[in-house]
Specification:
1365 residues, alpha+beta, ten-stranded mixed sheet, 43 helices, DNA (Cytosine-5)-methyltransferase 1, replication foci domain, ARID_dom_sf
Length: 1365
């Protein structure tokens, strides 16, 4: 025996480098306590990316982990002497193997000298002998196995003949059979094999490897043979292994040999390998020289071509085609104001996510700023833009919660929409803040817009609406606020983040700044190629796990669809290109006109052209302006060719627009896809680099419409332009179109007051009631909450009442530690003074003099009224109380509230999760059902016992189901998570404060609450409020808090019923995966597999989703709804009673003949055409055919049963002749101990195959299959359809006379435990290998005596409740 041990610390590769002996006594003493085991079905994977498989011969041991199925050894394999254990056969224990994952692999070693080499893994806790790799990993272990066998053959030969020569040794290696899945080099790459050897040809090498067989037979390894070329590739490895064995004295000569001598074969093999490798290196070197010379020649030619291109050429004399006006409806507006508007629109579309405003086309944007009669949509646009700029200036990161801010809003919100956060308060008082910032930052506003911006701020402060401002004031106001927003830290951080991300994507080649080259043909589908196991330069060969899976071939795209996908992918990079370009033009023509792709994702294929104003060029007559020497280079819109000055304004030669602004700026036009872009592309010179962008964009858009596959195919001009217009319309979104039918007058004071009140409620409910055990704080929290609920239910809530509750809200937040303790105490007195002025009015002279007492505050008054009554007096009176002033009071308080980006409102929670049920549908004041099991499971998984306040009710004292009322609801983004979950994977959650409605003495479920013994007093209740805090985690644990009315619904689900269930995070419909969209919501389709009873009805329905029919999930009855009728299973009629005494008629003969023909078509008797059978079955039964039942312990082969039954004449004839046991025997199972095989077979056929028989023997389907029969057939023409004298269906009982009943006597017996069990799932070998990465145990957890997990609910071990896709 010889053993080579790889030293990972010095070699870094598998079985290559220095090796140590295992024979010294010290080593044996240290390893005696390390057990030995066997590892079967193993796989090597990357330690840092477990889904990626690595080859066994090219990775460091410290960089891999190994998975497989391990078993212990019989006898003293745990603590025996390794030398003694290796000297005898290793017998694994007769116990089921355990799935194992070895993370710490120190080294691996190969044992030589036996019939087959043995590969061992060395870990800190055990040695593992590798048996067989997993089926899908076999082809990735071939190199290691081949090298080990080559070395083992040499070792065995040297142990017999120490002085073996080179030829004899090579013959011994060539006698090694080909490893499974390995392909000899002479067959795979014969030319390479010939180059290695140098004295042969590729054909000769191929014939030597084939052993005279054909190429078809050569595909099987057992028919092939290795050649000398394979030995050359592994020669150095063999030499290295032999040297290591000699140094370790693990390989010794026979007893009569000299131990100090080295076999001559090692030296000869090393010399021979080096000589052969020289033959392959020399052609490679010459090839590199030829490639280097070719590249140099191409470089010289390209330089010559570039020199020709760069030579000056005559400019084109014809003028470019005219561009259309960017805003034809507002042509009376001067170019300077239009330039400012164009800049604002581009800013709003490119940075829509940072601004958190919906996108809109340029026409909508112009109507909002230039229109004389703006509607609700335009008023909302103006509000959103101004408020978003102010939010960036103020830098409050929690105005919009962290999760909502990740996605750009798709549609606009009106005043009656549910609140999303503190941002809604900012929408109510933005006018005063805008005026303040304009005055503070007026020096940074450009000269042209400073004066109208200050005028706009003044009018807003006086209470005027923004839509009543003049066009120039609206634009100036937006310019002033956007200028400040661009200089803010928030925008700088966002810009840097997008810029860095775009730059990385550009370096990675994921997007390009210019339009892509148009594809000219549909790429052919990639042919299946077997992975080459030859080593790379670094000796590695990594394979992704997905390559093991066999995906269904996707429908190939047409050429037009490919081009359209190119266009859409180019469009998706619009924001990145805009950020990287920093306002630079995308093209410049030879006449100096510059072209811009403005609008981000809303560009819609348009090119905006910037033209110099009159007098810009030297040969034109410039307008009379005093100073024309300060012209700026056109760096991007907006461009003022002459700086704005007072002298320029007074010059009468300069034009003025209706607003009175001096208009002397660049002129803008636009080329829209269609005839305008066609003309421009024809005029451009594609050889001119600066114009190539235009021609490539034109081709990309023009050839992305249906009906244009190549240049030779043309549509009529009208149809082509219509299709281009529709395509570009699909690339433009208008997020404000949903407000077109909303009246501007629908926004009244009551709507705004309710909006403000809901925002205050949101702030209060966000206070962390789930963390505190202070009951006095909870009392105040509940009292303020109840008062707010009363105001919300009032017919006409008063602004005075809102002011009264503000100190109470402030006190709740202050006592929770949410206020800024450094600055808020200084501001609070002034804030309370303003509230006192609006609530109680100014103090009387007597009160100011101190001769009269302040207003008395009742004991049961609103929390905070005492603070209002004792507040100081304002020096100056305030104006009348309006919604805007009330919102400003709220905002003053919110500015000092601790920022919390995880704070979410109910509306933002619904928007983020996509759910409209469960926690997202529960409101304060609702009566709900609380299920104890769900609460206990949530506490156990998420809430540590030490962190639970003592005031919380003990879960064990609750009923199985409690009736509660919701008194508090806080929605959180990512706050809590189990210990094993990463922070970025935390799901959103909802904290509910529930008050139990049923006291301890009453009981809706008498048997479920601990009752006091008769005659003894009930235990004292600590908290009379009886509050329960319940966290609801999205997508993890089933809903255990739901409306009481919904819980009491009598909803019974039947096995097999089609259902659908809503999940979070789904935003696209895909019926192929069972995802449908109904009323804007997305659902997973599935069916009920099993039901069970439970006192609380929680998780009593087992469902299987269409997206993953092999997996199941336990859900509650209220979590699922019935699927629409079109997704129900087709209804198939079952067979009727069969008359066994009936004589066969001509129709019966024809039916038998059809069954015979169908059976032959589907592969009888050899069992072929199974794929056609599966396709027909899926077509007949729909999206989810009945699963194959368990028959004799294994899944029934439905294909075999069907063709055998059809060959015997079909269902009726087999039943009439009692041939079901004959059909059962064709499955090859032992039926001697089965007492109801015939009955089970017939029932399985009726459920799974009879509808298929009925369909395939129908005239229409029979004709579609191309089958014909003889209409005059008789029973004598059908041998095998008639049984012998005695029927073998001994246990057959006709349902009409002797039905076989189960123990209950109400239904035919199904033999669930033995014959027919639909609920059992047996994984095939392919399914097991497909889930080989789901290993749960590590080396530390290996224990064959571990407790079983039986009895646990499936949802206990699933961190997420979402079906596989």
């Amino acid at each position: 025996m010889a053993t080579a041990v790889g030293n990972a610390s010095t070699t870094g590769a598998v079985m290559d480098g220095k090796h140590d002996s295992v024979g010294d006594e010290a080593t044996i003493a240290t390893r005696r306590s390390i057990p030995m085991r066997v590892l079967d079905e193993y796989e090597f994977r990357d330690k840092f990316e477990e889904t990626r498989v690595v080859s066994t011969h090219g990775s460091k041991p410290s960089m891999v982990l190994v998975v497989g199925k391990a078993r212990k050894l019989e006898g003293d394999g745990e603590d025996g002497d390794p030398r003694e254990l290796l000297g005898r056969a290793l017998v694994p224990r007769e116990t089921p193997p355990h799935a194992l994952k070895l993370v710490d692999v120190n080294d691996w070693t190969i044992r030589y000298g036996e019939d087959e080499p043995e590969i061992w893994l060395v870990t800190p806790r055990a040695w593992y002998k590798l048996l067989d790799p997993s089926p899908r990993y076999e082809k990735y272990a071939t190199v290691m196995l081949r090298r080990a066998r080559f070395t083992n053959a040499v070792v065995k030969a040297l142990m017999k003949n120490w002085n073996m020569g080179l030829d004899e040794g090579l013959d011994r290696i060539l006698s090694v059979p080909v490893v499974k899945h390995d392909v000899p080099m002479a067959i795979k790459t014969p030319s390479k094999a010939a180059r290695l050897l140098g004295d042969t040809t590729a054909e000769a090498q191929k014939q030597a490897a084939l052993n005279g067989l054909s190429e078809e037979q050569g595909n099987e390894p057992e028919f092939c043979a290795y050649t000398h070329a394979d030995i050359v590739g592994d020669g150095f490895f063999i030499v290295s292994q032999l040297d290591s064995l000699l140094k370790a004295k693990a390989l010794l000569p026979p007893s009569d040999g000299d131990e100090e001598s080295s076999p001559i074969f090692i030296t000869e093999l090393q010399t021979w390998t080096s000589e052969k490798l020289q033959f392959s290196i020399a052609p490679k070197m010459s090839r590199l020289e030829r490639d280097r010379a070719r590249r140099e020649r191409l470089r010289v030619e390209k330089l010559a071509e570039d020199g020709i291109k760069n030579e000056p050429r005559d400019p084109r004399l014809e003028p470019p085609p005219p561009a259309s006006h960017i805003l034809p409806d507002y042509a009376h507006i001067g170019p300077a104001l239009q330039t400012e508007l164009l800049t604002l629109w581009d800013f709003a579309q490119v940075f829509a996510q940072a601004l958190q405003i919906p996108q809109c086309p340029l026409e909508r944007f112009a109507k909002a700023f230039f229109g004389t009669e703006p509607g609700a949509a335009e008023a909302a646009l103006l509000r959103d833009f101004m408020v978003s700029c102010l939010r960036l200036v103020e830098g409050r990161i929690d105005s919009i919660d962290h999760e909502t801010a990740k996605v750009t809003p798709s549609c606009a919100r009106w005043w009656d929409a549910p609140i999303l956060g503190i941002h809604d308060v900012e929408e109510l008082d933005w006018q005063a803040r805008a005026h303040h910032y304009i005055l503070e930052f007026q020096s940074s506003i450009n000269d042209r817009m400073r004066v109208p911006a200050m005028e706009a701020g003044t009018r807003l402060e006086q209470g005027e609406a923004v839509e009543t401002l003049t066009p120039v004031q609206r634009v100036a106001l937006a310019v002033a606020l956007s200028s400040s927003a661009l200089e803010s830290e928030s925008m700088r951080f966002y810009f840097t983040e997008v810029f860095d991300h775009a730059r990385e994507r550009r370096k990675a080649g994921e997007f390009h700044a210019k339009p892509p080259t148009l594809v000219t043909e549909v790429p052919k589908p990639a042919e299946a190629k077997e992975k080459d196991n030859s080593l790379k330069h670094d000796g590695t060969s990594d394979v992704e796990m997905d390559e093991f899976m066999e995906d269904e071939p996707a429908k190939p795209l047409s050429l037009t669809e490919l081009r359209r996908e190119q266009l859409m992918q180019f469009r998706r990079g619009a924001v990145d290109r805009a950020v990287l370009s920093r306002g630079k033009p995308v093209a410049v023509d030879e006449q100096g006109r510059r072209y811009f792709a403005l609008g981000g994702l809303n560009n819609a294929g348009r090119l905006f052209v910037q033209t110099a104003p009159p007098g810009w060029h030297e040969d034109e007559e410039a307008p009379a302006v005093e100073d024309n020497s300060d012209k700026q280079p056109m760096a991007g819109p907006p461009v003022d060719d002459i700086p704005f000055t007072v002298e320029a304004m007074r010059n009468p030669t300069n034009s003025r627009d209706v607003s009175g602004l001096v208009e002397y700026a660049s002129r803008w036009g636009v080329y829209k896809p269609g005839s305008e872009l066609d003309a421009l592309s024809s005029w451009c010179n594609p050889a001119y680099d600066n114009e190539r962008y235009i021609t490539k964009l034109h081709r990309l858009i023009s050839y992305s419409i249906d009906g244009v596959e190549c240049d030779s195919v043309e549509l009529d001009e009208k149809t082509r332009l219509e299709r281009i217009e529709n395509l570009c319309a699909s690339m433009s979104t208008d997020g404000y179109s949903n407000l077109d039918d909303v009246a501007l007058t629908s926004c009244n004071d009551r709507t705004l007051t309710l909006k403000l009140l809901h925002a205050i409620k949101f702030v209060l409910q966000s206070a962390p009631f789930w963390r505190t055990g202070d009951m006095r704080w909870i009392d105040r929290f509940l009292k303020v909450s109840a008062y707010i609920e009363g105001l919300l239910s009032a017919t006409d809530p008063s602004l005075i009442d809102i002011c009264k509750i503000l100190p109470g809200v402030e006190s709740v937040c202050a006592n929770a530690g949410l206020m800024d303790e450094a600055t808020w105490p200084e501001v609070k007195p002034t804030w309370l003074a303003q509230i006192r002025f609006h609530v109680l009015g100014r103090r009387t002279e007597a009160e100011l003099a101190g001769t009269a007492s302040t207003t008395d505050v009742p004991e049961n008054s609103i929390p905070g009224m005492y603070d209002i009554s004792t507040a100081p007096e304002l020096l100056e009176p305030l104006g009348p109380l309006t919604v805007h002033r009330a919102a400003n009071l709220v905002n003053q308080f919110l500015r000092f509230l601790a920022q919390d980006s995880n704070r979410m409102s109910q509306a933002s929670f619904k928007r983020y999760t996509g759910l409209n049920h469960g926690a997202a549908a529960i409101n304060t004041g609702d009566v709900v059902a609380l299920i104890r099991r769900g609460l206990s499971k949530t506490y156990a998984r998420y809430i540590d016992k030490k962190s639970r306040p003592r005031t919380w009710i003990d879960v064990n004292t609750l009923r199985v189901v409690e009736r509660c009322v919701v008194v508090g609801a806080a929605y959180r983004g990512t706050e809590i998570a189990p210990k094993s979950q990463h922070a970025e994977d935390r799901p959103p959650c909802t904290w509910l404060m529930l008050q139990l409605l049923d006291g301890p003495e009453s009981s809706l479920f008498p048997s479920t609450r601990r009752q006091s013994a008769e005659g003894t007093a009930a235990p004292e209740v600590k908290d009379t409020r009886r509050l329960v805090v319940a966290p609801l985690i999205v997508g993890d644990i089933a809903d255990y808090v739901l409306p009481w009315s919904k819980y009491n619904e009598d909803k019974t689900w039947q096995v097999g019923q089609r259902i659908m269930m809503q999940f979070e995070g789904i935003d696209a419909e895909d019926e192929s995966r069972g995802i449908i969209q109904i009323d804007g919501n997305f659902y997973y389709l599935g069916r009920v597999r099993k039901t069970r009873s439970s006192p609380d009805k929680w998780e009593t329905v087992m469902i299987v989703f269409d997206s993953d029919p092999e997996d199941h999930m336990w859900v509650s009855p209220w979590e699922i709804i019935e699927a629409p009728e079109k997704y129900h299973d087709p209804v198939h009629e079952g067979p009727g009673l069969v008359d066994v005494e009936k004589s066969l008629s001509a129709e019966d003969m024809l039916q038998i003949a059809k069954c015979k023909a169908v059976s032959r078509r589907l592969g009888w008797p050899k069992g072929e055409s199974k794929k056609e059978f599966d396709d027909l079955r899926a077509k007949i039964f729909g999206i989810d055919p009945p699963r194959a039942p368990i028959f004799c312990g294994v899944p029934m082969n439905l294909h075999r049963v069907f063709i055998e039954s059809m060959h015997l004449g079909g269902y009726e004839h087999v039943t009439r002749r009692k041939l079901w046991k004959t059909v059962a025997r064709t499955l090859g199972r032992d039926l001697t101990s089965q007492t109801s095989a015939s009955f089970a077979m017939r029932k399985a056929y009726e459920r799974c195959l009879y509808p298929m028989e009925t369909s395939l023997t129908s005239d229409d389907m029979f004709g579609q299959l191309g089958l014909t029969v003889d209409s005059d057939a008789n029973i004598d023409q059908f041998p095998g359809s008639t049984p012998g004298a005695n029927s073998d269906d001994d246990d057959y009982n006709d349902d009409s006379e002797y039905p076989v009943l189960d123990n209950e006597g109400d239904k035919p017996r199904d033999d669930e435990n033995e014959m027919l069990d639909d609920s059992m799932e047996v994984d095939t070998a392919k399914e097991k290998s497909a889930h080989a990465d789901d290993y749960k145990m590590s080396d530390d957890d290996f224990d064959e005596d571990a407790d079983s997990d039986e009895g646990e609910s499936d949802s206990d071990f699933a961190p997420g409740r979402k079906p596989r896709q």
